[in-house]
From TrEMBL:
UniProt organism field: Cupriavidus metallidurans (strain ATCC 43123 / DSM 2839 / NBRC 102507 / CH34)
Encoding gene (name): qor
EC number: 1.6.5.5
Record PANTHER family: QUINONE OXIDOREDUCTASE PIG3-RELATED, QUINONE OXIDOREDUCTASE-RELATED
Record's GO cellular component terms: cytosol
Molecular function per GO: mRNA 3'-UTR AU-rich region binding; NADPH binding; quinone reductase (NADPH) activity; zinc ion binding
Keyword Glycosyltransferase: no
Protein name: Quinone oxidoreductase, NADPH-dependent
Length: 326
């Protein structure tokens, strides 16, 4: 029998329930997938906590990879035995499971060079890095960026991609051990925010100018220091809220901070167009298959250990990418 992690109420990690599930046959446009690995992402905690609203009860998880075991009518581009990966939020919600039915539309066929475990560790993070590096800002060699959570799964991919573009990367971390990991993946400079003033240090590293772009996945605790780290007319990209949502603010602050720009993008809007999604997928998979970007899986959990996985995630004990190995 299939297994699934569900929530019946929102709250802390203890609301996660590991249960039996029955998976039927796929309907029109659907396939049945046997998961090999499921991605563990900080975004999963937003659904669990209620920051992102979903009807309850609900399964959670938006990223997994596995093997197609049955195909519904009308599905012509996929076949039984194909290895696939997916990500997406509400259209794909329910990845925390051993087996599931899912629409064939968001599924991405995996090339031989990429395993299901690597795919589950990087599809959401990698495609996020892809659009952030290729769609958000017209980067040119020599630009400097500030990357919060530089030792996280997405941060390590962004750092490596940034170096391919000739960028200088300043990464923030919480420990010296994480700083070492971040530097090994491309960060030119690291700032330990537990005892360093981020904005002050950024100014020192950039001769007072500031950075072109800040990628901020932390939110409430770093919002002001991120604005203070930007050069004139720089861009703050809010990509997550690990410390909580950013409080309401007067947009006039952007003028006071050097006519800064602010955006809160979502992956779904950058992979909604099939052609654009395919282009980003091809570039990401090409870099990973060629070894230009490496994906390090630093921790594997059993699906029944989802509660502990979320505790570790929110306690910032996880470096790089982690997965549920099925």
């Amino acid at each position: 029998m299939a297994k699934v992690v569900r929530i019946y109420e929102t709250g802390g990690p203890d609301v996660l329930r590991f249960e039996n599930a029955t998976v039927g046959e796929p309907g029109p446009g659907e396939v049945r997938v046997r998961h090999v690995a499921v991605g563990l992402n900080f975004a999963d905690t937003y659904f669990r906590s209620g920051l992102y609203k979903v009807p309850l009860p609900s399964s959670i998880g938006n990223e997994a990879a596995g093997v197609i075991e049955a195909v519904g009518s009308g599905v012509t581009h996929l076949a039984v035995g194909d290895r696939v990966t997916y990500t997406g939020f509400t259209p794909t919600l329910g990845a925390y499971s051993t087996d599931r039915l899912i629409s064939a539309d968001p599924l991405i066929k995996l090339p031989e060079a990429i395993s299901c475990e690597v795919a589950a560790a990087m599809t959401m993070r990698g495609l996020s890095a892809a659009y952030l590096m290729r769609r958000i800002y017209p980067f040119k060699a020599g630009d400097t960026i500030l990357l919060h959570a530089a030792a996280g799964g997405a941060g390590l991919i962004i750092s490596q991609w940034a170096k391919l573009l000739g960028l200088t990367v300043i990464g923030t971390v919480s420990t010296d051990a994480k700083a070492e990991v971040a530097r090994a993946h491309g960060c030119d400079h690291t700032i330990n925010y537990s005892h360093e003033d981020v904005a002050k240090r950024v100014r020192e590293l950039t001769d007072g100018v500031g950075v072109s772009v800040v990628f901020d996945s932390v939110g409430k605790d770093t919002f002001m220091s991120s604005l203070d780290s930007l050069k004139r007319r720089g861009l703050l990209v809010c990509v997550g809220f690990a410390s909580g949502a950013v409080p309401a603010f007067d947009p006039a602050i952007l003028a006071r901070k050097g006519s800064a720009y602010l955006t809160r993008p979502g992956l779904a809007d950058y992979i909604a167009d099939p052609a654009e999604k395919a282009e980003l997928v091809d570039e990401l998979f090409g870099h990973v298959a060629a070894g230009r970007i490496r994906i390090d899986i630093n921790r594997r959990y059993a699906l029944e250990d989802a509660v502990q996985a979320h505790r570790d995630l929110e306690a910032r004990k996880i470096v790089g990418s982690s997965i549920f190995a099925i």
